[in-house]
C-alpha cells in the first residue's frame, strides 16, 4: 500500500492519479470523504481525518510500505512555523509508529538555508525532524516556486486588471509545475530507489521572470497588455491581509519573496538531469487560462 497525504491538493491529486493508473494499492488522506470519493471510485482506500491527529495518521499509515508526507498549508495560522511544527511532529510520530519503511517528504527549495526563507523554515525543521527517524529511508523533495501559485492572482487580474506581487518583475527565477513534482514523487514511490536520508532539488525547466509570466498569461486570456506591478512589502502584506491571510502568514510570504529578490535561493542555478523538470510555463498557461475562463 502507498499512502498519500494531501490527496486532494495540487501534488497529491496528481500523484494519486499516477499511482492508480499503475494499478497500485493506494490510500488517500484528506479531511473530506466527498472530495476523496473520485479516488475511491477508482479503487483507492480513503482515510478521512486531520493531519494534526497523530492517532489518526498512525492508523492511516499502518500497513503502508511507503508514504508521501506533506505539511498542508494553513493560511489562517497565527504562528505558521509553530503550526508547521505541530503537524510535522504528528507526521514524524505516525511514521515512527507505523510499519512504513520509505517516505517521500515534500519539502522546498531553500530548505538548506536557516533564515530569510519565510514558510520554508518550517519545512527545514521537518526535514531535520524526519532525519532523526533511524528505521526509515527518507527522500526530501525540494521543489521550487509552484506555477500554480499564479492561480491565486486570478481575482486580482479580473478585478484590478493587473498581475502583481512582491517578487521583482525583471528577475528570472525557478518555477515548476506541480504535475512534474507528482511525476517525480510517483517514480520514487514505485521504485523505492532511495535509502538513508537524501534530498532532491526540483527546479523546473528554466528561470522565468514575473514580467514574462504575465506576458504569457496575458496572451492566453486575451489581455496582451496585462501589466506586472511590483508591490512594496507593505502593499503586498496589506493585499494578503485583505484576502484573508493571517498576519504571520502574510509576513512569511513577504520574507520568502524578498529572499528570491535578494537571490538567496531560487535563481541562477544550473539545471542538471536530477533537478530539471519538463513542463514550461507556456504549457502551464493553457491550464491557467482554463481556470481563468471557468
Ligand atoms: N506553493 C509553493 O510554491 C511551494 C513550493 C515548495 C513547497 N511548497 C509546499 O507544498 C505544500 C503544499 O502542497 P500542495 O500545493 O500540493 O497542497 P495544497 O494544494 O495546498 O493541498 C493541501 C492538501 O492538504 C489537505 N489538508 C489541508 N489541511 C489538512 C489537515 N489539517 N489535515 C489533513 N489534510 C489536510 C487538503 O485536503 P482537504 O482540504 O480535502 O482536507 C489538500 O489535499 C506545502 O507544504 C508547501 O509549503 C509549496
Mean pLDDT comes to: 97
CATH architecture of the largest domain: 3-Layer(aba) Sandwich
Q: List the ligand species.
A: NADP nicotinamide-adenine-dinucleotide phosphate
The structural domain count equals 2
Question: Major sheet: order of its strands?
Answer: 3-2-1-4-5-6-10
Q: List segments where confidence is low: pLDDT < 50 over at least 5 consecutive residues.
A: none
What is the highest CATH level, the class of the largest domain? Alpha Beta
Key attributes of the depicted protein:
294 residues, alpha/beta, Rossmann fold, seven-stranded parallel β-sheet, three-stranded mixed β-sheet, 11 helices, 12 strands, globular, binds NADP nicotinamide-adenine-dinucleotide phosphate
What does this structure look like?
The protein folds into two domains: 170 residues, NAD(P)-binding Rossmann-like Domain (Rossmann fold); 87 residues, no CATH class. Helices cover 44% and strands 16% of the residues. Helix 9 runs antiparallel to helix 10. The structure holds NADP nicotinamide-adenine-dinucleotide phosphate. The site of NADP nicotinamide-adenine-dinucleotide phosphate has 27 residues, from helix 1 and strand 7.
